[in-house]
Amino acid sequence: MARRLFGKVIKLATLVFFPAAMCSCATAYDAMKSPVDHDYPAANPSAIQTLLLTGEADPAFRIRMAMRWVARNPDCSVNMNWLEGVRGAYYADVPLDLSWKGTHYATLVPLDGRAPGRCNWSFRSIVVSGVDDRGRILELAEWRHPSPDEKKAYSAQEVWGDLVMLSTAPLQKKDESGVRNLICVPSHENPYRPAVLHCGMRVLESGWTVGSTLWIAPSTTQAQVNFRY
Questions:
Q1: How far is CA 56 from CA 1, 21, 75, 140, 226, in A?
Q2: Domain range spanning residue 212?
Q3: How far apart are CA 179 and CA 176, in angstroms?
Q4: Range from 46-55, 85-94, 152-161, 209-218 carrying the lowest mean pLDDT
Q5: From CA 216, how far away is CA 185, in angstroms rounded?
Q6: DSSP secondary structure, 181-217, as one string
Q7: 5 within domain boundaries
């Protein structure tokens, strides 16, 4: 009797703990590298390629930007799901210093500002987050809602989206000017999260906006993104 009971306990423990061990092994938080991490991308002393990013922002907006670097070396990744063989590359967000003169901002973006190092770090995009003076979160039209793990990596009150991305393919006509005018309009209300301002190039009849990410070529030296209501 005792032996049969013990066997059932072992089977139950296997059913409970083995699948848990086989599923997600890491989170987006584990893939994000901070300045205290050994593999955080180091500054490139030979950096020469810069992008001057400028624009206008409504005085009610408080905006922050960062450069997102992604590791291209498969060894610099975390196991996101053992069963499906899904791995997530390391990434690091390096803050950009925005200088303001009234409603005009400017920042120099060193596109080769981080050394490849062991992880073969590569610039992916300029990410942005922001709120207005009413506490409404700025959310780009071409942004997916962050997972709970991504919210932990930043803040439950912030949403980061790809504002400017580097393309190796020929630019589409909408990106050739190097200018993006974003209109930020209130989106759906949700009692479980702060109100959101949805930002994009144009507003649809549904009230949603579309087109927010500006693509640039490796040779681009100037770009402009404006934020307004």
A1: 77, 49, 41, 16, 5
A2: 25-228
A3: 8
A4: 152-161
A5: 25
A6: EEEEEE----TTS--EEEEESEE-TTS-EE--PEEE-
A7: no
Contact 50, 111 (CB under 8 A): yes
Q: How far is CA 97 from CA 63, 90, 105, 108, in A?
A: 11, 23, 10, 8
The answer, yes or no, to whether residue 77 has pLDDT greater than 70, is yes
Mean pLDDT of 189-218: 78
Question: What pairs with residue 224 in β-bridges?
Answer: 54, 179
Who wins on pLDDT, 191 or 112?
A: 112
Q: Is residue 41 part of a domain?
A: yes
In whole angstroms, give the CA distance from residue 186 to residue 173: 28
Backbone angles phi, psi at 138, to 5 degrees: -80, 125
Calculate the CA dihedral of residues 114, 179, 96, 43 and round it to 10 degrees: 10
Residue 89 CA neighbour count, 13 Å, CB half? 14
69 assigned to some structural domain = yes
With 50 as the cut, is the pLDDT of residue 93 above it?
yes
4 pLDDT band (50/70/90 cuts)? low
pLDDT at 61: 93
Q: Token pair of 65, please?
A: 């930007």
Whole-number average pLDDT of the chain? 78
Residue 34, domain member (yes or no): yes
The pLDDT value given to residue 151: 47
Q: Report the number of distinct structural domains present in the chain.
A: 1
Tokens describing residue 63: 């905006």
